[in-house]
Inverse folding.
């Protein structure tokens, strides 16, 4: 049962200017404010207990902007990628929000709450049909986490879609109380194809205070694309990204959702809602035929 305080937290999101607030924070996070920036980063690290020992740059004073820190690179070897060629790797650090089968077009958001696969992928039924009755996994990235998103499996980039939307928080409380959350928020959807795995999509979902979403092949996508659905066709560009390589990054927190075709993967045993994960560890294996 939602407490009065939690109820206020959820309902207040309907009224606060989420985009204005997020863009303003984003502009501030891009500025070099010298010692003020270092103070803000130090405060953030202490409050969220960020593990800076695994960062490539451990000296906070060397981060010129807050976003430089937030999208920090890790030391080489900090996230070993599972090597088995039939195994998929986790795309991000964080905590499993939900995972499991897609019920035709319905994806579990939280207990008792479902949202539409078609809506998540931008509203085109032709894109959604490949993943109907397939498999999904949703990962929530908290403020303390590493915020780069990596490839779960080697594949060729087919298409990217930017879908404008709101910027609700994507934490568990909001997921349990706002319907169709991930299909409402601003997001970037990357579609891939692999001979063994078939088609799959990685969705990077924006949230409150998420200043922007970037990909390694297109740079800043959100909010650069504005208020219209924007489609990028990469089918003829032969862009292949290997398992474990960086796909994109969030400038401040959020969620990733991976969707796969029916009967293509078997999720790793032991994964369940609430399980903490690290990028590069086992997500699942190719289904045995």
């Amino acid at each position: 049962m939602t407490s009065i305080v939690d109820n206020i937290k959820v309902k207040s999101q309907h009224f606060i200017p989420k985009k204005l607030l997020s863009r303003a924070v984003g502009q501030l996070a891009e500025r070099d404010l010298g010692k003020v920036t270092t103070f803000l980063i130090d405060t953030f690290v202490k409050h969220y207990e960020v593990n800076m020992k695994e960062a490539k740059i451990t000296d906070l004073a060397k981060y010129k902007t807050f976003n430089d820190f937030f999208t920090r690179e890790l030391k080489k070897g900090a996230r070993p990628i599972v090597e088995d060629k039939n195994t998929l790797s986790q795309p991000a650090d964080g905590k499993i929000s939900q995972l499991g089968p897609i019920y035709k077009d319905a994806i579990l958001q939280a207990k008792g709450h479902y949202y539409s696969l078609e809506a998540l992928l931008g509203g085109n039924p032709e894109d959604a049909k490949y993943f109907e009755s397939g498999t999904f996994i949703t990962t929530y990235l908290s403020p303390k986490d590493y915020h780069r998103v990596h490839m779960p499996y080697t594949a060729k980039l087919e298409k990217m879609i930017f879908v404008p939307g709101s910027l609700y928080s994507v934490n568990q409380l909001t997921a349990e109380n706002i319907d169709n959350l991930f299909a409402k928020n601003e997001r970037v959807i990357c579609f891939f194809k692999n001979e063994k795995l078939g088609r799959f999509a990685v969705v990077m979902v924006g949230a409150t205070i998420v200043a922007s979403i970037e990909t390694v092949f297109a740079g800043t996508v959100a909010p650069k694309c504005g208020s219209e659905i924007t489609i990028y066709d990469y089918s003829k560009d032969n862009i292949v990204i290997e398992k474990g390589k960086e796909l994109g990054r969030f400038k401040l927190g959020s969620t990733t959702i991976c969707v796969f075709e029916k009967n293509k993967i078997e999720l790793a045993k032991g994964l369940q809602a609430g399980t903490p994960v690290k990028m590069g560890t086992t997500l699942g294996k190719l289904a045995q035929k």
